[in-house]
Amino acid sequence: MTTPENHRVIDQRIDRVVPLTTPALLLHELPLDDELTSAVLAGRRAVAQVLDRSDDRLLVVVGPCSVHDPAAALDYAHQLRAAADRVAEDLLVVMRVYFEKPRSTVGWKGLINDPGLDGSGDVNTGLRRARALLLDVLRLGLPVGCEFLDPITPQYIADTVAWGAIGARTVESQVHRQLASGLSMPIGMKNRPDGSIGTAVDAIRAAGVPHVFPGIDVSGTPAIMHTRGNADGHLVLRGGGGLPNYDAASVAGALELLRAAGLPERLVVDASHANSGKDHRNQPKVAADVAGQIAAGQRGIVGIMLESFLVPGRQDLDPTRELTYGQSVTDACIGWESTDEVLAVLATAVRARRSPHPHPHPNPHPLPTPA
To answer: Which parts of the sequence belong to the DAHP synthetase I/KDSA domain (predicted)?
Structure first.
């Protein structure tokens, strides 16, 4: 109960409080029907099979750094679906559909938090737009990958997701490790921004066991969550401390850390972030090196991540001008043409890895550097 005296000690820095729609209401308004439910479950199974190597394809999580325009993201999804069909025998393509943008300081925090791109913070609208896009992507037959940042939002969207990530800035957080232990899909743990891999390895171990923590249930009611632990945790190498960690020596060292911790020796390479030197034009170079390792027989690499959109580069949010359609407003992405080339090279590498005489590293067919 709030009394006049309470107001002297609570919410002193809260400007206003807006009621939040419940997960149950949003799931009722934008339901996951039986057909889409089957698609999500099939996507999760496929990712898990790639992780445990019962499926020898390569997982490729590819898409915009962070979705700001659902229409452009859906156009991208149509092109990705066609490309995914072409490489389906060799690559398991999952569309990156990220809605929450972690920030070191300040900036636009993503479609869920600010769908108007104007600081208005209409979270209820953001959640609806995000879920509607996820359903549209699923209807195209593409599995979806998301990063989970806020511990509440998974109740609104996680039922649609086949692969999830805990980011570099939150991998050390107990809250996110507990969250990952209860999520229903495989979860990749990124190494810290300073390059620490051991922290991510610890996170995989922590998320693999049961936890008890406070949260909300689907009705929006505060609840105590008792998790079973997530056996599908895995490492994501994204570079750090100004240095990349996608090269063969770094991959071998990371696999050794997993082995020493008694964890499955499997990892995903993030071709962006510190691995690309924060220059999107370097992502194809990273992919080419990873492809070379795969072609040479490296089976510890089970996946790769790419930041990709319709138009290469990035743009600033500027209320005085119209945004370029299909170009990122957060991290710079490679464009569609480069994306298609990267997928083809990765597929070729997987076929080489299957052969009895894998190609020597480096990749004999390197990718061109995009302009």
So the answer is: 49-342
Longest CA span, the chain: 78
- Do 204 and 189 touch, CB atoms closer than 8 A? yes
Task: Please state, in angstroms and rounded to a whole number, the distance separating the CA atoms of residues 45 and 292.
Answer: 27
Question: Tens digit of pLDDT for each residue in 25-81?
Answer: 999 999 999 999 999 999 999 999 999 999 999 999 999 999 999 999 999 999 999
CA–CA separation, 66 and 73 (whole Å): 10
Q: How many whole angstroms separate alpha carbon 124 and alpha carbon 340?
A: 35
What pLDDT, in 10s, does the model give residues 81-116? 999 999 999 999 999 999 998 766 677 889 999 999
Contacts of 216 (CB under 8 A, 6+ apart): 23, 152, 155, 222, 223
Q: How many CB atoms lie within 10 A of CB 175?
A: 13
Domains in the chain (CATH in brackets) are: 18-354 (3.20.20.70)
> Minimum mean pLDDT among 94-103, 122-131, 139-148, 160-169: which range?
94-103
Q: What residue type is 82 in one-letter code? A: A
Q: Who contacts 137 (Cβ-Cβ below 8 Å, separation ≥6)? A: 73, 74, 77, 95, 97, 144
Query: What is the mean pLDDT of the segment spanning 284-299?
Result: 98
Torsion over CA: 352, 358, 360, 362 (sign): positive
Please classify residue 145 by burial: count the beta carbons closer than 10 Å to its beta carbon, then call 0-12 exposed, 13-18 middle and 19+ buried.
buried
Q: What is the pTM of this model?
A: 0.94
Give me the residues paired with residue 303 across strands: 59, 268
> Any residues with CB less than 8 A from the CB of 274 and at least 6 apart, and which?
193, 195, 238, 239, 240, 241, 242, 243, 244, 245
Residues 65-80 as b or e (16 or more Cβ within 10 Å = b) = bbbbbbebbbbbbeeb
Q: Provide the strand spans (E) within 243-349.
A: 267-270, 301-307
